[in-house]
Amino acid sequence: MLYHFSEESGISVFIPRKTPGREDLPPVVWAVDEAHAHLYYFPRECPRIVYTLCGEVGEENKRLLFGPAASDTVIAIESVWLDRLRQTVLYRYTFDERDFRLLDATAGYYTAERPVTPLSVELVGDLLDKLAATGAELRIVPNLNPLRDALVASSVSLFSVIRFRNARPPG
Hints:
Elements: E1 2-6, E2 29-33, E3 48-52, H1 59-66, E4 73-78, H2 82-87, E5 91-95, E6 101-104, E7 109-112, E8 120-123, H3 127-133, E9 137-141, H4 145-152, E10 158-162
Parallel strand pairs: 4-9
Antiparallel strand pairs: 1-2, 1-5, 2-7, 3-4, 3-10, 5-8, 6-7
């Protein structure tokens, strides 16, 4: 199954749209696989960084970026988004995989270039509870820019920066 997360509860048909910053794509409907669904347990516009300990990561990078965390995955959001995360009501739409094509296996992204009708929709529930159940460490930081810069300069190879256009400016 594939999923799309929305703060809207009554979408009966998903219509392909242009994606800001992805001029290389035609209008599409986006979906994500189950392994990456937890990356969308956030308000739609919430900027976030997700990174995972895998491959060859130097000891200094482990210490600086993962610290004493018991988790191999860290999800960071800015503190200005915490109240909205607590208050957001989110719905998970389920799709048939046959309606989509794989766009990015690492990120779990799928797209469809035609309208898609969901198989079901359900309330996600308490987002902080859902995130805690993933085993990832949720970090609340004042600004995502220093973390993004540190990750780009590090030996961490598996990280994702989502909705960064909505992050606070550096400084």
